[in-house]
């Protein structure tokens, strides 16, 4: 089982990781704003993550860490 962690204070909310997730587990937060004024990414169901790291690969700011 994989674990995703995010540096949410650096996230721009671009959504590239959301589009890259084959399991559709990522979403842009609707109720959170980070220090930069953006809505950061969050995972909807950590238990279903397969650890493919497509999200981390697509992130232009390298804010996603995948632990297996």
Secondary structure elements and their pairing?
Layout: E1 3-6, H1 16-20, E2 26-28, E3 41-43, H2 54-58, E4 64-67
Antiparallel strand pairs: 1-4, 2-3
Keywords, please?
single chain, 68 residues, alpha+beta, Alpha-Beta Plaits, 2 helices
Structure description:
The protein has one domain: Alpha-Beta Plaits. The N and C termini lie close together (6 Å). The longest helix has 5 residues, at 16-20. By secondary structure, the chain is an alpha+beta fold. The chain has helices at 16-20, 54-58, and strands spanning 3-6, 26-28, 41-43, 64-67. The chain contains two helices and four strands, in the order E-H-E-E-H-E. The radius of gyration is 11 Å and the shape is globular. The strands form two sheets. Strands 1-4 form a two-stranded antiparallel ribbon. It has a two-stranded antiparallel ribbon with strand order 2-3.
> How many β-strand stretches?
4
The level of helicity is 10-25%
CATH architecture: 2-Layer Sandwich
With helices defined by DSSP (H or I, 4 residues minimum), what is the helix count?
2
Question: What letter string, H or E per element, gives the SSE order?
Answer: EHEEHE
CATH level 1 class label: Alpha Beta
Q: How many structural domains?
A: 1
Gross geometry:
globular
Q: In which order are the strands of the major sheet placed? A: 1-4
Strand content: 15-25%
**What is the radius of gyration?**
11 Å
CATH fold annotation: Alpha-Beta Plaits
**How far apart, in Å, are the first and last alpha carbons?**
6 Å
């Amino acid at each position: 089982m994989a674990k995703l962690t995010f540096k949410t204070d650096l996230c721009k909310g671009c959504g590239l990781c959301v589009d890259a997730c084959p399991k559709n587990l990522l979403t842009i937060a609707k109720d959170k704003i980070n220090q930069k004024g953006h809505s950061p990414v969050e995972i909807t169901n950590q238990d279903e993550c397969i650890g493919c790291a497509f999200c981390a690969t697509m992130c232009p700011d390298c804010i996603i860490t995948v632990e297996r």
